[in-house]
Amino acid sequence: MPGGESLLDQTIWVVDVVARETMLFAATGLLIGGLDDILVDLLYLRQRLFRNSIDRRRLSDIAPSPTPGRLAIFVPAWEESRVIATMLRAALRRFGHGDYRIYVGLYPNDLPTIDAVTAVAEHDPRIRMVIGSRDGPTTKADNLNRLWTAALADEARDGRRFKGIVLHDAEDLVHPRELTLFDMLIDSHEVVQLPVLPLIRAGSRLVSGHYADEFAEQHSVQLPIRTALGAGMPLAGTGCAIARDMLAAIAEERGGLPFDASSLTEDYELGLTIGDRGGRGVFARVTDPATGDLIAVRAYFPATLTAATRQKARWMLGIALAGWDRTGWRAGGEWRDHWMRMRDRRAPIAVVVLAVAYGAILAWGLRGALHLLSGQPLPDDRLATWLGMATFALLLWRLSIRCACTARCYGRREAMWAIPRFFVGNVIALIAAPRATWRYLAMLRGATPQWDKTIHDFPDEIATDDSCIA
Description:
single chain, seven-stranded mixed β-sheet, elongated
């Protein structure tokens, strides 16, 4: 720091240094991440323009299964009394496939949810209640393991094997043709994932809507490219089907239970495990020719800042922190799979870069104000300026892609909302990161993982008819 100068001069010098260094750090990090994203975007545009993929198919383009089979639908439930009965009735009414059974995982200390499921199950034998011996909550994976055990017992009793296992959540609004699509594709793939379309609440357009934007981009661009590259496909935990024999093979390796009960993101890890075993996965973006809408799962996501922060913290913990410890890198894996796993795990670093970036913007503004007040010329920081301009251009590109994906699924009006929601998502990530880090440190000290769930609502079916363009 220069000596013999006024307090204002010293303050300006400090602010100049802080503004320059934070801008250099943040811009460099954002530039690396932005170029990484652009590469995925370009691969997607190339595939969409020059290759025919399942991303552009209609249900009528896919050959019917030569061996149609029975499907088991797993619905784990903990404190879901407000939605589970409505969800089950809607599923029974909507499913167009004639051969399925719904298994609902319950806990003995959750009597309201048990009563709600009983009210539906006593009128339809396709609902199978599975009440565990341990009080909840455990983990979602532990709940799913109990459903797997029940399905195997039913196979032995009935003398019929299931063809595939379908995963759904208690708040999902299912598509009438999804089981038909699963039955078609599970013949040639070990795992099938449908798009997930979060529903936007009128009273929470910013918080609930940012999920719509994120999933629209992930399930329009990122997952299709991931499967096209042959990298392991992480599952969304809902709207996915796994070949029964693949799940049985994983269970055999794990002592009889296919889902890792110590995992907080068993869906993500299961998808990678199937990829590690050479299983073929497909992200099926298929339209229903009868209605023109996308065969997808629709559901409400958290609508408050607190609930969204908890959910994002769980995802960050399970995928980028604890998930890295648990899944590592695919043994002998190619660069494509390593690249995709690296993208999954960059969230903690991205949050640090994002926090510094917002600090740099404030420091840069303060720097300009101080120089204006003092009459001193601004220092010539060309590198920081050019990096800042480059990252701003990347931001405009990212917002354009985000808006295009949102427009494709929700229309032009929501695409405009995607711009402010992009920054809302950044704020949620910044708040969620410390919570995820704290829970990760607790797990390292031996804390038992538990199901950190949110309160759910079931959608009004009449309000969910807006289709997503394929």
